[in-house]
Amino acid sequence: MLAMLASAVQAQTPIKPKEFYFDADATTARKIVVVEGEGEALAAGLVKARERGRRVIEATAQLAHVAMSDKRAELGKSLYEQAVNGTASTSSIGRSVRWNYAWDLYCNEDYAQAYGLWSELAAGFGNPAWLPPTMALSLWSLDRKAEAVQWYAAAVRTEPTLWSDPANYAMLLPNWREQDRQRLAEVYTAWQAAPPAWP
Q1: Which residue in 44, 64, 76, 163 has the most C-beta neighbors within 10 A?
Q2: Which pLDDT band, with edges at 50, 70 and 90, does 10 fall under?
Q3: The dihedral formed by the CA atoms of 155, 158, 162 and 164, expressed in degrees to the nearest 10
Q4: Domain finish residue from 96, 126, 156
């Protein structure tokens, strides 16, 4: 519950982009996978992993992802909150849980809470490369378009040859849904029409 309140507060405070974002942050921006598979067998395997006490946080987060992918958002949120409450926001697993939770919230059109979690992560580890396009997408979805363009500009400043062409999105964002890449292309169009100056 505290994590949700902190996220709600941070969602009200705009996070300003920095100049560059070169940090890979691979331990945060990764899918959490404890058990391979799909359907009921996957869910059963994750429940068993939790009961046995093996990678409980990760198993809980993956089970939450399964629930939210199946449009059982309340169950998914409840499981994610258990995982969030069991980790420090500064730990690698805590950051990964929050990153995955934010994406599942976003995919369930809970844009404000997703933004809150990504904002929380923005205040942590370095200058992660995943942050500018993710924040641009998030803010565009919240109809905060000027801020979205500012974040997109940070991506372009960091890697101008990559982010100046939406044709690169499939390579740059292989795990994004096509609809999310298309929405980011709308941000790109707005950025191209009026690129903001730095700072």
Answers
A1: 64
A2: very low
A3: 60
A4: 126
